[in-house]
Amino acid sequence: MEEIDSKQSKSPSLVMTIAAVAVLTLVAGGGGWLVGALLAPPPAQKTEAAEVPPDATGEEDIPKIATEANGVVQLEPITTNLAYPAENWVRLEVALQFEGAPDVALAEEIHQDIAAYLKTVSLQQIQGPRGFQYLRDDIQERVDLRSDGRVTNVMFRTFVIQ
């Protein structure tokens, strides 16, 4: 009889094990829900969308940074082919930040100088981040020489190689 009692006390019944797992699962789920409810932000209120006119471009309310009042002149886009390979084209848009009042004639000279310089650059020279940094440094140096220090910054807007 002692053998029968020892077998029953050694292994709990399958029903008790399932009940214990179910209770622990419910406690864990409830705790997760409670913590989630305390930490999560409340849902955002729905707002009505404003009507947009069909001819809107999305740039109506955005102030232009490149204005002559700010001392910044946006140059016309430069599109030219590279020296090698000649079938590759580059498009570059830059803006010049002047110290004091901007000089539009000087900006046009710098535009032509950058366009002439880009025609001498090969694709291998401007590949990768290091090549782009060298190109930026070269253009900044040419602008500094051309402007005698009146241009304080050359800002690259777009740079595309095709």
From TrEMBL:
Query: What InterPro entries does the entry give?
Result: FliL
GO aspect biological process, one term? chemotaxis
Subcellular localization, as worded in the UniProt entry: Cell inner membrane; Cell membrane
Q: What are the UniProt keywords, alphabetically?
A: Cell inner membrane, Cell membrane, Cell projection, Chemotaxis, Cilium, Flagellar rotation, Flagellum, Membrane, Transmembrane, Transmembrane helix
Q: Which chain regions cross the lipid bilayer? A: 12-39
Q: What is its main location?
A: membrane
State a single Pfam family of this protein.
Answer: FliL
**What is this entry's stated membrane topology?**
Single-pass membrane protein
An example GO CC term for this entry is: bacterial-type flagellum basal body
Question: What superkingdom does the record give?
Answer: Bacteria
Function recorded in the entry: Controls the rotational direction of flagella during chemotaxis.
Q: Which family is this sequence assigned to?
A: Belongs to the FliL family.
> What is this protein called in UniProt?
Flagellar protein FliL
Which organism is this entry from? Sinorhizobium fredii (strain USDA 257)
Q: Coding gene? A: fliL
